[in-house]
Amino acid sequence: MNGYDKVEYVKVDKILDHPDVPNIRSEVTKADVKELMASILQSGIQNPLTCFVIDGKHYLVSGWRRRKAVQEILKDDPKHELSKGVPVLVKKYNAKTVLRDALYDNMVENIQRKDVNPLDQANRIKKLIDENIGKQEICAKIGKSITWLNDVLRVLEADEEVRKKIKSGEITMSDAKNIAKLPQKDQKQVAKGLAAARTSGNREATKKIKKSLDEATRVRSHSAPTKKEIKYQRNILFEVLRVMKQRKEDDNKVYYILEGCFNMLEWALGFRKDPDFTKYTKKYGIKIGDDGKLVTEEKAKKKKKSAKKTAKKKKK
After folding, report:
1. What one-character DSSP code corresponds to residue 277?
2. Helix crossing, 30-43 with 64-76: angle to 10°?
3. Phi/psi of residue 277, each to 5°?
């Protein structure tokens, strides 16, 4: 992508939709269009529409509602000055990746707008991933974490009732992300209960359901990183260590800490053998149980008593 070209004025009926770059919004309400019509009639189009050009034809990247509002104005008044054209910023894209880049720009422009339905946002992220745009790239562009993105994608696989309630605005995306972590069989009931409590204005019931939901999903609140994500972090750390070593800066403590992190990432990726920490537990006299947790004297005594009781029962 090489930035914007100059602003052009294009007749609104010449601004087309490209099937591979659809509107992020699944619905555009009449109320939204009427509000925009009033604003445009009073102050004109404040922000130009954005387009890209293929074979001399203009295709929309952003500005569906503005285009619709202008179309409605021209229905009422075909001779309105807007019939001469509307301001358009023509985006310069690489010819080979034009559709992918236009789709990406449309997402970036709309993803954080409050008036875009959260489910539409989630579907657009899924479409970008289907176009082989990496999760790390998307997250960096919109300022979100991988955990946030994975939770959003999980909502798309949630029970249909959960998705309906998000679309209608009866539950928030934040609520839906938690509900989506529940077993599929429980999601519908929880979504209905929370939506009913919110709609009725029953704050106490809403608070109670949300608290129960938080408690039920707290253990699973962080999605495990994928092998691709671990490799991405490992590659970054490799370059940091390489530069630190070249510059020979007096920062040995940080270097060795980062080198240890690097080695653990390598282990997680299967590039290194499993680390053996047992030699250190023996050296410092630390007792570790089969679960990997510290065995205190109190725990050892309880375990011993439990073993004796079990032995007695067996004898009987």
Report:
1. -
2. 70
3. -95, 0
d(CA 188, CA 179): 9
The alpha-helical segments, DSSP class H, found in the chain are 30-43, 64-76, 98-110, 118-130, 135-142, 146-155, 160-168, 173-179, 184-200, 203-217, 227-247, 252-269, 278-283, 297-315
Q: How far apart are CA 234 and CA 260, in angstroms?
A: 11
What distance, in Å, lies between the first and last C-alpha atoms of the chain?
A: 80
With a CB cutoff of 8 Å and minimum separation 6, the contacts of 100 are 131, 133
Please identify which residue in the block is written with the tokens 């604003």: 39
Per-residue pLDDT tens, the chain, 316 aa: give them: 444 467 899 999 999 999 988 888 877 778 889 989 999 999 999 889 999 999 999 999 989 999 999 999 999 999 999 999 999 999 888 888 888 888 888 877 776 666 677 888 888 888 888 888 888 888 887 788 888 888 889 899 999 999 999 888 899 888 899 899 888 889 999 999 999 999 999 989 998 998 888 877 765 445 567 788 888 898 999 998 888 888 876 667 888 888 889 888 888 888 887 777 777 788 888 887 766 678 777 766 777 777 777 766 666 6
Hey, is 169 helix, strand or coil?
Answer: coil
C-alpha–C-alpha distance, residues 117 and 50, integer Å: 21
With contact defined as beta carbons under 8 Å apart, do 44 and 131 qualify? no
For residues 155 and 181, the answer to whether their CB atoms sit within 8 Å is no
